[in-house]
Amino acid sequence: MVVVGIDVGSISTEAVVLDPGRRVLAAVVRPTGARGREAARQALAQALEEAKVPSREVARVVATGYGRQRLEFAQRTVTEISAHARGAFFLFPAARTVIDIGGQDSKVIRLDANGAVLDFAMNDKCAAGTGRFLEVMAGALEVDLEAFAALAEQTRKAAPITSTCTVFAESEVVSLLAQGTEAAAVARGLAEAVAGRVGGLVQQVGLVREVVLSGGVAKNAAAVAALRRRLGVPITVTAEPQTVGALGAALIALGDTLAAGGTA
Q: Is the pTM of this model over 0.90?
């Protein structure tokens, strides 16, 4: 028997399959699109196919993410805070501060030595400091996200981005470019702006090492470098940063199953 964790995010949906020994048998990432429920079903089917496990062998499914309440096939839903804390601590038991920067929100979680959540701060009211912010800004620079990261690392000069609102920041970028500001300096300034926004959340809960970074933005080298500069401490980036929440949900599913006397 196996368990599955599913994280339905605004931009991507992830599924992780765990066996009773807490081994990851499969981990998939799919675009969420306009139909989160269907994306979750497809992620589940793909993960089971890759794990070579029939659906009848699934003992429990736990869902997290903004679309978690719509998955009628999940036996339980958990908050993103709980899921990311569990997943990050499983991967890095020394983790005490977990930063997750997703598509439309960012969160900072403080953990104790046992992985329990001590405190957290979350930005879910504004796209600033999120993956969506970077997508919009890359569009304004007329580059893709990979090129954006490379562009930002071409200079040490960062153009100041004063707007905290995504819409106003986009207008500011267009204005800076029109004034002749180098695109590289604008890109670096945008990365610094993301780091500043997230740094404010870190300040709210307090910075304690070791710091672990998850979420899609963890794949953006410029944003990661800016955050390291902002915090002034090393930051560990998970090998598969987008699947940390789904992994945490799967671990919770496994714990539920074993507590109920199952053989998961």
A: yes
